[in-house]
Amino acid sequence: MSKSIKRKDRKKATIGHFDYDDFFEKLHVRIKKLRKEKGYSSYESFAYDIEISRSSMAKFDAGSFDDIRLRTLLKIIDGLEMTPAEFFCKGFESLKFIANPKQ
């Protein structure tokens, strides 16, 4: 017979501390604003230059997305000639936090 191994209960990470929709809205606003400041009047030419799909960039530009790959976000930030720290230092200060996240 095999021995049963009793495992310690472990605490799981809690998710839901901030409003994801609010984060994506702020992300889209920041991307669009910086793209225009960089001199790209068209999301299409920016997408072409940073080598991401125009359809993806259209979604990011319009704010009609609910997910973004980290590699894609880093390409966008790099295309804006910024570091991630510089990108996130403005526009995210008022991110909505949830007082009592789901357990």
What can you see in these coordinates?
This protein is an all-alpha fold. The protein has a domain at 39-92. Helix content is 49%, strand content 0%. The chain is built from five helices and no strands. The chain has helices spanning 20-37, 43-50, 54-62, 70-79, 84-88. Helix 2 packs across helix 3 and helix 2 crosses helix 4. The two termini are 37 Å apart.
Topology:
Layout: H1 20-37, H2 43-50, H3 54-62, H4 70-79, H5 84-88
Largest sheet: none
Structural class: mainly alpha
Overall outline: elongated
The radius of gyration over CA amounts to: 19 Å
The count of DSSP E runs of length 2 or more, i.e. the number of strands, is 0
Beta-strand residue percentage: under 5%
Sequence of secondary-structure elements: HHHHH
Low-confidence residue ranges: none
Q: Percent of residues in helical segments?
A: 40-55%
- The number of helical segments is 5
Notable traits:
single chain; 103 residues; mainly alpha
